[in-house]
Amino acid sequence: MHFSRRTTYAAIALAVLLGASLWWGYGQYRLNRTYTVRLENNYQRAFHELVWSMQTVENEMAKLSVATSTPQVIEKLSTTWRQIYSAESKIGQLPLALVELDDTEAFLTNAGDYIFSLVRQGSDLSPEQRRQLQQLQKSASAVSNKLASIQSTILQQNLKWTDVEASLVRAGRQNEVRDNTVVNNFKLVNKEVQEFPEIKFDQRIGVAAPAPTALKGPKVTQAQAQETALWFLSPGNKAAWQVVSMEATNGRIPTYSFVLRPAQGNGRVTVDVTQQDGRVLFMLDNRTPEVEQIVTAQAIAQADTFLRERGFNNMRLIGQDKYQGSLMLSYVYVQDGVLIYPDLLRVRVALDNGSIIGFEGNGYTAYHVQQRNLKEASISIEQALTKLAEGLEVIGAEQMAVIFNAQGKETLCYEIPAKYGNDRFLIYVDAKQGEEVQIIRLEPVTLPTNPAN
Amino acid sequence: MAKRLTLLTVICLMAALMAIPAQAVGERNLFWGSRGEDVRQVQLRLIRWGYMTGSADGVYGANTWNAVKRFQSRNGLSVTGNVDAATFRALGYTPKTVVPAPTVNKSPATQATGMTNSNDMHLLAKAVYSEARGEPFEGQVAVAAVVLNRVRSPIFPNTVAGVIFEPLAFTAVADGQFYLTPNAEAYRAAQLAVDGWDPTGGAIYYFNPVTATSPWIWSRPYIKTIGRHRFLR
Known about the structure:
By secondary structure, chain A is α+β, with helices and mostly antiparallel strands. Chain A has helices at 5-64, 70-93, 102-121, 127-157, 161-174, 181-195, 222-233, 296-309, 362-367, 381-386; strands at 241-249, 255-262, 269-274, 280-285, 315-323, 326-335, 338-350, 356-360, 393-394, 399-404, 410-420, 423-430, 436-442.
């Protein structure tokens, strides 16, 4: 075949054009993808924060019904109000313009206004106001449960908001309701609100941990720290482990961080020893536990032995949690029968062979001293009980405890397990001032593992 | 002309990128929008058993959804339209166990994070998996710990979602890898971090020195290195 010069030029020009468009098209495609992911991330964030706000609102409202000291009440009211406001703005950011959420939004606005009026009142709540708040809490609880279930659907099925948006636009155009889990569930949320016309909410997060106070001893050398790490892993046999690598770290508590492996067999364990005082801050074994062979009681016995052999005495088990073949146990130090919550440590036991595959002593390392100067309580437990909100039912023996208050100061308290409706709480009443300093709302499952037993 | 070519190019590229993933039947739950070999297998069975007409195309759409609902209602299952563990079993497949989310423990000493529910645990596990899969286990715990340290830090958002979805905070969130399904190890790492393990000593930044593009990140106070990541305050 023979082409004229003109045809050849045309072919070359076309080829160049084709190449350029391919290049350009691919660039556009990548750009489009980047923006879609970014948009999706914004939607996801707004949604997950909405759920968090609603749960905070509900949780704080639950605590509000048992709070009695005015500062606690005001603080919880303010948190609630702030979270309602945040929830409203998050709903506005979601691509739900075509879903009818008017009632939900009206409910949020009304609840927000009501709570704000209570904040401004600046005093304790009247019985009538408490009743109102309980009503609001019921609605908030219904809404937040529904949202949490949408959240779990979204997370487990990896649903995309950008897809929801597309289907809403389609549905709007065709004037028909598409079957869409998310959209349908949002309609249900709206329905819940209609059924409970009044609402209320609340929640706040705990105190930031104060700076470490207990590390006062001399600085240890790297060699000393290594001895400690080897001893911690195997007190009887220091040749059982070999150091793979070491790094001096400069975190919140400076440590020597060792990576070790067993002298025989495979494995990888990290042990951090504090540079000051030479205490073990944490131990983390990378091993994945296999099929469960031992029962909880055996695992607890293993952990108790582990702690005793390493010089942790007077520890009380306060919580346990089983997950993926291991049992996590929380302990606090006990002095003269008082639970010292700042001196918290955790041990993780593998349920296949009972070995200890994790130790976490951030609290214990930072705050533990052998003998605290615990002043006598200046109010009796009977007096403390009179500080509780009306309608609160005590469901267990009280217990003396030291916790951090809102200013991060150790405070001697009465810990009182109590019930209000279906909600269970641990209420902490200052044993000197008689004020509530902390309210912990318990999940139904966590109660049996609590210190009272 | 250029426009049409572009369109063609894009279509070709899309087709190449959307190649149907191979999944063993029962390895994941199926629902409207799922696609893959496992969907096709389920469709074949539904067709053979007379619950569905049409062809098995490997795409879970209205037709499949209706068929699954019919199947569920006739077999005494809860009618969800999704193929979950119970439905797999009724269809004669062995579902692989789905990783359940761990719980959040509360005590006066541990209430210092914005964690309120197990869905936050899913978010955390997704962050760990997308950012640090392939790292040693303690490196995965470390990434989860950084997310939680940020939640506690006054200069970052105070929820897990806020921290994770902060624009450009995590590369795996920006490029969409975040939406992968995490494995059991990622969940274990997330759980450990929530329970208080922090191999980073309070880090709020980390980066991979091989891929880091911002010179600014080198100016933060260094704490330690775990796997391929450098952790910073």
